[in-house]
């Protein structure tokens, strides 16, 4: 092979260097680096080992932190679950201030514990209320029956009064048992709804007349008005039960000398029945609770009237609306579809 001279290229580029200098320069650039000696290798290995140990320590710390962040809440939730399983619903559920699955689980678990505690309280209140509601009429019935059997009551008029009281208290017991059974059927979705023509005007008059004596006795301004008297297809007995429960609730909370209004209307394909009172009103935090079974604002009664009214309204394809203001009274509105045959 004929050797290539770099002189013409150097002359053309105007670089004043000899060919030998250029060759030497190229050889220096292309020359391999000098091999590391023993000390350099040891120094490199020690630096790599140190970096590896530091990285391993960092990874270990991060793994420990992340594992504790996950396991600590889970262990706390597990402990809380054990406490709840033993019936201690007041256990403190840990606060998890994250938005991941563990935080969501802790929030739901806290809500579950609160609901269980509330359910247990409602059960206690229900047992106390029902036992009281049962004991009172049973005591009256036993007393009057014993007086009649033993001949203590000899006057015919007094005997008739005793029998009337026995019948009234027996009817009261029947209503209580019927409420409990109705609620059980509604919860189990085993409730049968009849289909018949219902004259809402006549039905509201029946419900209104039921409470006339109590209104007179307590000097309550008790009114009824009808803007329309529609005839709908529904279950008349159950509609009457709903309105009666709403009126009973109004009379319970309206003070003597107060006012209760019953109003019937029809608009936009729906029939409305309003029951307004001048009672104490309902606080915001209690407006949802009053429709829960066995819950009572004053701890008296069974707390079944409004829950049954609400569930019956839903079963009939309607709903119950509430407007209330603390200190200014409440308005319960039954809304039913204006279906016709």
Name a few traits of the molecule.
341 residues, alpha+beta, Heat Shock Protein 90, two-stranded antiparallel sheet, 57% helix
What does it look like?
57% of the residues lie in helices and 14% in strands. By secondary structure, the protein is of the alpha+beta class. The protein has a domain of 142 residues: Histidine kinase-like ATPase, C-terminal domain (Heat Shock Protein 90). The strands form two sheets. A five-stranded mixed β-sheet has the order 2-4-5-7-6. A two-stranded antiparallel ribbon has the order 1-3. A hairpin with a 3-residue loop joins strand 6 and strand 7. The longest helix has 49 residues. The radius of gyration is 42 Å and the shape is elongated.
Write a concise synopsis of the structure shown:
The chain has helices at about 5-15, 20-30, 40-85, 100-150, 155-185, 200-210, 210-215, 235-255, 305-315; strands at about 195-200, 220-225, 230-235, 260-265, 270-275, 320-325, 330-335.
Please render the helix and strand layout as text:
Elements: H1 7-13, H2 19-30, H3 38-85, H4 101-149, H5 156-187, E1 196-199, H6 200-210, H7 212-217, E2 221-226, E3 231-234, H8 236-253, E4 259-267, E5 270-277, H9 305-315, E6 319-325, E7 329-337
Helix pairs in contact: 3-4, 4-5, 5-9, 6-8, 8-9
């Amino acid at each position: 092979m004929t050797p290539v001279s770099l002189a013409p290229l150097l002359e053309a580029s105007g670089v004043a260097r000899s060919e030998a200098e250029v060759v030497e320069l190229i050889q220096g650039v292309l020359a391999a680096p000098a091999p590391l000696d023993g000390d350099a290798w040891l120094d490199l290995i020690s630096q790599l080992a140190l970096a590896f140990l530091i990285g391993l320590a960092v990874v270990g710390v991060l793994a420990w932190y992340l594992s504790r962040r996950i396991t600590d809440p889970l262990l706390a939730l597990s402990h809380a679950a054990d406490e709840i399983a033993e019936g201690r619903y007041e256990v403190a559920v840990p606060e998890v201030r994250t938005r991941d699955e563990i935080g969501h689980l802790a929030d739901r678990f806290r809500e579950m514990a609160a609901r269980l505690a509330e359910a247990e309280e409602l059960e206690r209140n229900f047992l106390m209320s029902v036992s009281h509601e049962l004991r009172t009429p049973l005591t009256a019935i036993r007393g009057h029956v014993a007086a009649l059997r033993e001949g203590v009551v000899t006057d015919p008029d007094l005997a008739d009064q005793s029998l009337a009281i026995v019948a009234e208290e027996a009817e009261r017991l029947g209503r209580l048992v019927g409420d409990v059974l109705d609620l059980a059927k509604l919860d189990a979705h085993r409730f049968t709804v009849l289909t018949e023509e219902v004259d809402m005007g006549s039905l509201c008059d029946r419900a209104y007349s039921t409470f006339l004596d109590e209104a007179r006795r307590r000097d309550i301004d008790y009114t009824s008005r009808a803007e329309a008297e529609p005839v709908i297809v529904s279950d008349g007995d159950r509609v009457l039960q709903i309105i009666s429960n709403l009126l009973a609730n109004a009379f319970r909370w309206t003070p003597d000398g107060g006012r209760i209004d019953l109003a019937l209307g029809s608009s936009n394909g729906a029939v409305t029945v309003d029951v307004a009172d001048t009672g104490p009103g309902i606080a915001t935090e209690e407006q949802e609770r009053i429709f829960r079974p066995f819950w009572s604002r004053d701890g008296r009664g069974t707390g079944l009237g409004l829950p049954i009214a609400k569930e019956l309204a839903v079963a009939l394809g309607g709903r119950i609306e509430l407007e209330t203001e603390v200190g200014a009274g409440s308005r319960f509105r039954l809304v039913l579809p204006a279906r016709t045959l």
